[in-house]
Write a structure and sequence with these properties.
Two copies of one chain form a homodimer.
Chain A lengths: L13 H12 L4 H8 L3 H15 L4 E3 L4 E3 L1 H19 L13 E8 L1 H18 L2 E8 L5 H6 L2 E6 L6 E9 L1 E5 L1 H7 L14 E3 L10 E2 L5 E2 L6 E3 L2 H9 L5 E4 H9 L4 E3 L8 E8 L6 H14 L3
Parallel strand pairs in A: 3-4, 3-5, 8-11
Antiparallel strand pairs in A: 1-2, 5-14, 6-14, 7-12, 7-13, 9-10
Helix pairs in contact in A: 1-2, 1-3, 1-4, 2-3, 5-10
Chain A binds a DNA duplex (30 and 30 nucleotides) through helix 3.
DNA sequence: AATATTATTCCAAATTATGGAATTGTGAAA
DNA sequence: TTTCACAATTCCATAATTTGGAATAATATT
């Protein structure tokens, strides 16, 4: 328990305090935040004031005419929002599992980022439903044909016009140029592709060539970073660096859509985005296909498709 | 707001509810939990009861003589504890940054898991201190000599007896056999290495050979998984599968120590663990070394060393 | 069978949260 | 420049919630 200043009541419900603060951070006024939450404006003032005292710094600049979240407040709100959501999630019921069991080895290949973000949850779910399955997962960002020959199911971005495989489109995937709100506040947003030349950027390294992947834009335009703030062949590491404000990056939408929704990242250069690419799942059309491969394939299609 | 049954008061402070529940989950009685928290046993009863109503299922089996957290309760407690900690963390102040600025490219190589878990936070910190640095990070789990030639700073597990490099030991790293508590509850814990032959395990694939890395034990013993529940060359994916109870795995301590501390994972076969390996950082001893390399090296040493 | 201990329920008292009213501050309109 | 409308903030009386003592019920131990 903490002792407050005179005239500031002690508010022990920190969860509600955070919720009020986060709502205020995305409102144009405390009054608007209060309306959204169905509470009084005094409650918003009290919550923000108490949080500022706990944090030891201002989270909003404000007067009777407008409010402005501080940079510290902005960062704090992003983290708080996520953690608030995580706690709220604890109070939402989840559906039970069901299904019949499969067993044996299934070899699956996918891009790294998609693997971690979208595929692993589904594979874990699959494995719960079918405890006898042996999932052999290969994650890489490059098209390695020899690997394709050894897999049962693959997921790729691009196009698939090969009769050796049965392919099914999962979704269209966009390539977004994104950055953290903090970075944008500091350096501004690019108005055109050429602006990227003098903004901090990060880069994804092609493991095969050692060079940076070019960024793709509408009308077939490309731009390759030269000077970067951070670069790696590891897309996860690149994403971490972007989230932490090191630079702008071009990243597939499935990796960042949650972060965009949570306002941890912001899209820029939307008007020059390339046409969406296909995200598809495929399996070889050779010989009789084990039932488990067919069923896993169908399960992945149903769980990964975006309608 | 939710309408409770007769005689159950509405408790809006969900954070405290979770805290009470989590403390009870690791206590031998509600009275003990109450003592730990400095509240009355009635408060513990009320919090647990209300949480059970919100979740729609029993979290404790209990009578006046003892309490037993249910399996659902156990799982819920593990998640809740982490999220509770994450929220509590929001209310702890953090120290400001300081330092002088460096600029230019620094090429760093490290193992994937260590890179994500231990190294990225430090690199992000470095980049904040030195915004002009261009960090080029290569993450891989294999020793690739040609890559070593192109790097400025490397981090490796094993031994380093090469006079071409300046090496400094960061820590001893242990290889732990771990599994989720849920899995152990379901299948029991191995009493010896041979028990692994009929327990579910996951495996890390050597990208170069396509085969599974052997597990290492004391007195030079090795064991290689044959049938796995899950396998990947991607250590992150393997770790996710272990956390979700797919199988036992042998994983370096730096990847799992937080999860062990949080009781999300449990160590087994501790008595046959191999002697610790060296985790060391190194840089080439060729020609004059740019100051930025030297300073980054020293910074990494100071931040990554375990005392 | 008796006893000690703990979970649970009830209830009065204590504590906290709440919004109306008033005050203060600020930008826009006259 | 003055006036006005609006919102942040503070104060305070009231409402709502939380609290622990007391009582009850249940259970393992003696």
């Amino acid at each position: 328990m903490f002792i407050s200043n005179l005239n500031v009541t002690v508010m022990l419900n920190r969860l509600e305090m955070l919720r009020i603060f986060c709502t205020a951070a995305e409102s144009r006024s405390f009054k608007e935040a209060a309306n959204r939450l169905g509470i009084s404006p005094q409650a918003v003032t009290r919550a923000v004031k108490e949080l500022e005292q706990l944090q030891g710094e201002l989270l909003f600049h404000r007067n009777t005419r407008h409010i402005q979240v501080t940079q510290v407040g902005e960062k704090f709100a992003l983290i708080a929002k996520e953690r608030l959501r995580a706690v709220d999630e604890l109070f939402q019921t989840s559906a039970p599992n069901s299904g019949n069991e499969l067993q044996g080895r299934v070899r699956i290949a996918a891009p790294v980022g998609f693997g971690h973000k979208c595929l692993m949850p589904v594979l874990l779910e699959l494995s719960t439903i079918h405890p006898q399955l042996d999932i052999d997962l290969t994650l890489s960002d490059e098209r390695v044909d020899v690997v394709d020959e050894k897999i049962d199911i693959g997921i790729r971005i691009g196009f698939m016009r090969d009769s050796r495989f049965i392919a099914r489109q999962l979704a269209k995937t966009n390539m977004y140029v994104v950055a953290s709100p903090d970075l944008i506040n500091r350096v501004g947003r690019p108005a055109s592709i050429v602006d990227l030349n003098h903004l901090p950027v990060t880069g994804l390294v092609d493991r095969n060539t050692g060079r940076l992947w070019p960024w793709v834009f509408s009308m077939g335009r490309q731009w390759t970073p030269s000077i970067t703030r951070f670069r790696s062949a590891d897309s996860e590491a690149e994403l971490m660096s972007v989230q932490n404000g090191l630079g702008f990056a071009q990243i597939p939408d499935f990796l960042v859509q949650d972060l965009l929704r949570q306002e941890k990242l912001v899209r820029v250069l939307e008007e020059v985005e390339p046409v969406p690419w296909d995200l598809y799942i495929y399996r070889p059309q050779r010989g009789p296909v084990p039932q488990r491969i067919r069923l896993v394939f169908d399960h992945l299609v149903s769980r990964l498709s975006v309608h």
